[in-house]
Write a structure and sequence with these properties.
By secondary structure, the chain is mainly alpha-helical. Helix content is about 65%, strand content about 5%.
């Protein structure tokens, strides 16, 4: 299967920009709903963590910083965002997107990267996963805060 790098990256960038835009005007009150795990802040933190993980583990070959916490509680990726001001969550997302963007720019889509021990995937598979994950969570954001 031949992937067009420009189209794949454009799709990802559009999704990232839309996520950032959807969360840009939110107040802390709008981003956090007491007693609810699925909040705009939680979803944005989760996406920030996905970007961070893909950069650290798959692209840079570094250990996953959140592995222990996520193993203990699957929802941990959403929970941290519940306790942080939305501006801090937006900043973490922005920073992690940039780290991932820079790392991906240096790689070919065909480059193999390690995943889950000795399993290898390509950079293209990483980007495709990121497109799917961001798209899925953008749909959740749209449900929570409207089109």
């Amino acid at each position: 299967m031949s992937l067009d790098r420009a189209q794949l990256v454009d799709d990802l960038e559009l999704l990232r920009a839309t996520v950032a835009w959807k969360c840009s005007g939110l107040t802390d009150e709008q981003a956090h709903r007491p007693g609810e795990l699925m909040t705009a802040a939680g979803i944005l933190w989760h996406l920030s963590l996905v970007e961070n993980t893909l950069h650290d583990v798959l692209v840079a070959g570094q250990p996953q910083r959140w592995a222990e916490r996520l193993e203990a509680r699957r929802d941990a990726a959403f929970e941290v965002g519940l306790d942080l001001p939305i501006e801090e969550v937006r900043g973490a997302y922005r920073d992690n997107v940039e780290l991932c963007r820079e790392a991906l720019a240096e790689r070919s889509l065909d480059d193999p990267v390690g995943f889950a021990g000795d399993r290898l995937v390509t950079v293209a598979e990483v980007v495709e996963y990121l497109v799917r994950e961001t798209s899925r969570h953008l749909a959740l954001l749209r449900q929570l805060i409207g089109e």
